[in-house]
Amino acid sequence: MRTISRAKTTVLAVAASAALLAGAPSADASPRTGSLGLPAYSDLVVDQANHHVFVSGGKTGNGVVVTDFHGWVRKTIDGQFGASGLTLSADGRTLYVALASGDAISAIDTTTLTETARYPTGSQSCPAHLARTGTVVWFGYGCEEAWNGGIGKLDTATTPPSVTLDVQGANVHFHHAPLLASQAGDTGPLVAGQVELSQSAIHVYAVTGGKLDARASGAVVGSDLTDLALSPDGKTIYTASGSRDAVEAFNSADLTRAGAYHTGQYPNSVAASPDGKYLAGGVRNPRDDVYVYKTGGAAPLSTLDASSDGVLAPRGLAWSADDERLFAITRPANGSAPALRVLDSPADR
After folding, report:
1. Other Cβ atoms within 10 Å of 346 Cβ, number
2. SS (H, E, C) 205-244
3. Is 152 exposed, middle or buried (0-12, 13-18, 19+ CB in 10 A)?
4. Of the candidates 182, 238, 249, 176, the residue with the CA atom closest to the CA atom of residue 212
5. Is the pLDDT of residue 211 over 50?
6. Is the dihedral of CA 113, 116, 121, 122 positive or negative?
7. Are strands 325-331 and 311-319 parallel, antiparallel or unpaired?
8. Distance between CA 84 and CA 107 in Å, rounded?
9. How far lies 212's CA from each of 93, 151, 216, in Å?
10. What are phi and psi of 329, to 5 degrees?
11. Using an 8 Å Cβ cutoff, are 276 and 233 in contact?
């Protein structure tokens, strides 16, 4: 195991210069610390083709920040009311954004970085979390903590694209908007879990003809579920729950246990690398807050310091497609304004 020093990281600057916003490269490659200019944080997505990272500000903000792979801000996309969950289309040309304060899902062109469409999800629906299988964008929605949350779908293959609510079935209710994770193939699976409950349950669905087919479910992840991830083949579910001291793994077919990856108390983030080789788990600790394992490994390959000036944000980790970078969202220990840290060579290969 080796700890990667802070000297091997790149941190997002508070504000990019006019030249950076125009797309000009920076000559200053020194590490920087600062805010993304967002009031809070909700989600991040890595666009490998364009070398962009998209970061949303949550229900109290109205923007999506776009950075390059060095952490420099390229643009802030305004008018995204309560921008929360993010997911990319199958061809990577469209970013879908759940607008928790706009009762809609917006579509943003990943080349021009401009909005091209907006799909209403219904009055007082508050879509918050996104996942995709094939051409269907699934969204976890629900405005209040009153067991009125559900799963909806945006079918982008219809003309015009259509929205349907309560596709999870009448026998399943969520306290509020459920967290979603999926694999991008047409058949999924799609996994839904309720965050921040004293006993969190997860539900696994197969996707058949654009419809959800209920499979395994159970309260196996402990309490205070914060993050979900799936292995690239969809066979393994990884969970980060506050009541555990490890990222846990479960077989998606029947929720039997498939290992655990020690992180220490209160894990809040988990990310599987796109090729399935590595797993990153994070905790809300100052320093030594990210653990990178070889999938199935007994000990971490490296322990990373993502937040020397704060703490790792919940659901704050994402890999680049080539495994060369791990992107981490941090925030002040007693604040909400996020910053982006780029961790180079996270597996120390």
Report:
1. 28
2. EEEECCEEEEEEEECCCCCCEEEEEECCCCCEEEEEECCC
3. buried
4. 182
5. yes
6. positive
7. antiparallel
8. 13
9. 25, 10, 12
10. -100, 125
11. yes
Distance of CA 134 to the CA centre of its chain: 18
The rounded distance, in Å, linking the Cα atoms of 113 and 78 is 11
Q: How far is CA 263 from each of CA 7, 47, 342, rounded to the nearest angstrom?
A: 23, 27, 20
pTM of the model: 0.91
Backbone conformation region of residue 93, classed left if phi is above 0, alpha if psi is from -120 to 50, else beta: alpha
264 three-class SS: coil
CA distance 51 to 122: 34
Average pLDDT of the segment spanning 305-317: 89
Beta carbons of 260 and 246 less than 8 angstroms apart: yes
Q: Is 198 helix (H, G, I), strand (E, B) or coil?
A: coil
Phi-psi region of 102 (alpha: psi -120 to 50; beta: other; left: phi over 0): alpha
Residue 70: which of 18, 13, 110 has the closest Cα?
13
Say if residues 141 and 125 touch (Cβ distance below 8 Å): yes
pLDDT at residue 2 above 70?
no
Q: Where are the alpha helices (DSSP H) in the chain?
A: 18-21
Q: For residues 192 and 254, what is the distance between their CA atoms, to the nearest angstrom?
A: 14
The C-alpha atoms of residue 331 and residue 140 are separated, in whole angstroms, by 25
Length of the chain: 349
What is the rounded CA–CA span in Å between residue 288 and residue 279? 16
Cα separations in angstroms, 199 against 250, 310, 316: 17, 28, 22
242-298: per-residue pLDDT in tens?
999 999 999 999 999 999 999 999 999 999 999 999 999 999 887 779 999 999 999
